[in-house]
């Protein structure tokens, strides 16, 4: 725990020497959604491998760099590519970048992902505002001794996804003529996709979408007192009763198709932030 | 050192100080440790002094074993417990149960502070645990089984002894405290649940949720102990009421219902003592 704080501090310090802004909004860009970072003005790009103590991303479709700069009048820092639990990282590694963002001054986090739609009224390509999540990863990044300087021992999760930010995002979508879905994201460990029986179960348990990320990052963001907005891109349908199988290529293909709308939505949301 | 050897070392350390064999073990949860203060002729063992014990780290947990007599019954109480979310493995969390069993304890009374899921519950209610759901993604019996401790595949069909449920109901009646009954869900924590998680736990049959108890009860059953469980509803779980959760609230509520809890527990122990004499 003490080491973690030192590592966060060293990573942030190393980044601060390069950055020419003080980011207030963090972005975590999910599978196939990383192109949003290309829109950042006056970007300072730092590869993960060049940041002290950062893990290195291994999954296809994830670039693996931080991009800091301005976007729609906001000072932002974006993760192009993230660390997944199924890659074998510890929960502490998966969430390390969120700690670093906090240290850099980030107050709001927009976390995005590609996910499967379990709610039968959803369609591939839909964008969903995450209203809440269910942690089915089987782990929690806050296991172990707590450091009160980082956050409370027992963080409240009753409003993990900020109502204010959800409203801002919904209004932003409306103003550009998009209809958004809303729902509950179930975070699983992966790397297997869910079986039909598991999907039926998760649906019964109250999930609308299912994916392999986001939950650990949001837990740590809330522990650190960061406000969270979550946006899912539904890349495939995961309805237990009619599942046909899914490949990572398909996920990337749908994400690519949804990308222009996704980028527009996030930009509109950013421009609406106070 | 094997678990049994490690256990025996702790048992030797404690036993050398005890004047009689404790029959009932008590695990006192967050804010409920005060019951141990009522134990007469108390022998106190700080966890850090007992071989094989770890230190307890959470505010509201004292971290010591107290042995003596409560309402005539020879008891040994854990004031503070080891939580999985603190980073302890399941074997460490349940080590004190192994030690209590080896000291001669036959009945274990586990208590905890829990979040109410069942909407007919209120903060401050005391609930007899009828059954549990293990949502901790781990089990203290993983690994090689030692038949000297218990069976490879312990039956959990009556983890919480129905006779003790009835005994606790009668004890509540005697103490003039209305008791609820319900199913306890053990989560790892340390985050409190999201409202979506609470709805899920309601769907699967949970009445209250907390971050302890389940591993201890598994080890106790493996070890052949009878178990009685009592939850104190310290707050309603997330989303049931429109308000955030805090550990301070947990401690405040347990403080408020302290006298009810003490009366019920003393009545339970009195009945256990009578039961032993019959």
From TrEMBL, chain A:
It comes from Salsuginibacillus halophilus. The keyword Protease does not apply. This is Purine nucleoside phosphorylase. Its EC number is 2.4.2.1. Pathway: Purine metabolism; purine nucleoside salvage. PROSITE patterns: PNP_MTAP_2. NCBIfam families: PNPH (TIGR01700), PNPH-PUNA-XAPA (TIGR01697), PRK08202.1 (NF006054). It holds the Pfam family PNP_UDP_1. It is an enzyme of class 2 (transferase). GO terms for biological process: nucleoside metabolic process.
From TrEMBL, chain B:
Pathway: Purine metabolism; purine nucleoside salvage. It catalyses: a purine 2'-deoxy-D-ribonucleoside + phosphate = a purine nucleobase + 2-deoxy-alpha-D-ribose 1-phosphate. GO terms for cellular component: cytoplasm. One of its GO terms (molecular function) is purine-nucleoside phosphorylase activity. PROSITE patterns: PNP_MTAP_2. One of its GO terms (biological process) is nucleoside metabolic process. Residues 24-269 form the Nucleoside phosphorylase domain. Phosphate binds at residues 30, 61, 81-83, 113, 212. Homotrimer. The purine nucleoside phosphorylases catalyze the phosphorolytic breakdown of the N-glycosidic bond in the beta-(deoxy)ribonucleoside molecules, with the formation of the corresponding free purine bases and pentose-1-phosphate. Cleaves guanosine, inosine, 2'-deoxyguanosine and 2'-deoxyinosine. Belongs to the PNP/MTAP phosphorylase family. This is Purine nucleoside phosphorylase.
């Amino acid at each position: 725990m003490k080491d973690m704080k030192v590592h966060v501090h060293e990573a942030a310090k190393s980044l601060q020497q390069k950055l020419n802004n003080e980011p207030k909004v963090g972005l975590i860009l999910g599978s196939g959604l990383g192109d949003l970072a290309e829109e950042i003005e006056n970007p300072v790009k730092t590869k993960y491998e060049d940041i002290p103590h950062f893990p290195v991303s291994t999954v296809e479709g994830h670039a693996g760099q931080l991009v800091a700069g301005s976007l729609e009048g906001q000072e932002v820092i974006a993760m192009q590519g993230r660390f997944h639990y199924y890659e074998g990282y510890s929960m502490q590694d998966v969430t390390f970048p969120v700690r670093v963002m906090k240290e850099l001054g980030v107050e709001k986090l927009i976390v995005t992902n590609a996910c499967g739609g379990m709610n039968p009224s959803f369609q591939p390509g839909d964008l969903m505002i995450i209203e809440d999540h269910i942690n089915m990863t089987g782990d929690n990044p806050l296991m172990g001794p707590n450091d009160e300087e980082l956050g409370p021992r027992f963080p409240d999760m009753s409003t993990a996804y900020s109502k204010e930010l959800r409203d801002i995002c919904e209004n932003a979508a409306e103003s550009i003529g998009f209809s958004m879905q809303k729902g509950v994201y179930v975070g699983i460990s992966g790397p297997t996709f869910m079986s039909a029986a598991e999907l039926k179960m998760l649906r019964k348990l109250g999930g609308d979408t299912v994916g392999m990320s986001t939950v650990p990052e949001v837990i740590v963001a809330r522990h650190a007192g960061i406000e969270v907005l979550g946006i899912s891109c539904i890349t495939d349908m995961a309805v237990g009763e009619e599942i046909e199988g899914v490949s990572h290529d398909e996920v990337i293909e749908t994400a690519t198709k949804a990308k222009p709308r996704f980028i527009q939505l996030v930009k509109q949301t950013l421009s609406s932030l106070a | 050192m094997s678990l049994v050897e490690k256990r025996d070392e702790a048992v030797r350390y404690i036993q050398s100080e005890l004047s009689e064999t404790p029959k009932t073990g008590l695990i006192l949860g967050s804010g409920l440790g005060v019951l141990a203060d009522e134990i007469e002729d108390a022998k106190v063992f700080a966890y850090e002094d007992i071989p094989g014990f770890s230190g307890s780290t959470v505010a509201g947990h004292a971290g010591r074993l107290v042995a003596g007599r409560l309402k005539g019954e020879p008891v040994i109480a854990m004031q503070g417990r080891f939580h999985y979310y603190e980073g302890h493995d399941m074997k460490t969390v349940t080590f004190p149960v192994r030690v209590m069993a080896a000291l001669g304890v036959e009945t274990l009374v586990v208590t905890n502070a829990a979040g109410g899921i069942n909407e007919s519950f209120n903060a401050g209610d005391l609930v007899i645990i009828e059954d549990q759901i293990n949502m901790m993604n781990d089990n203290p019996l993983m690994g090689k089984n030692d038949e000297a401790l218990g069976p490879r595949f312990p039956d959990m069909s009556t983890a919480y002894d129905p006779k003790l449920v009835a005994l606790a109901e009668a004890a509540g009646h005697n103490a003039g405290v209305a008791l609820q009954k319900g199913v306890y869900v053990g989560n790892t924590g340390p985050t409190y649940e999201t409202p979506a998680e609470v709805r899920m736990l309601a769907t699967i049959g949970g009445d209250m949720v907390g971050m302890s108890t389940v591993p201890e009860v598994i080890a106790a059953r493996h070890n052949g102990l009878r178990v009685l469980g009592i939850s104190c509803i310290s707050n309603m779980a997330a989303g049931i009421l429109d308000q955030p959760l805090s550990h301070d609230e947990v401690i405040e509520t347990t403080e408020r219902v302290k006298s009810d809890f003490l009366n019920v527990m003393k009545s339970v122990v009195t009945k256990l003592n009578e039961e032993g004499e019959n």
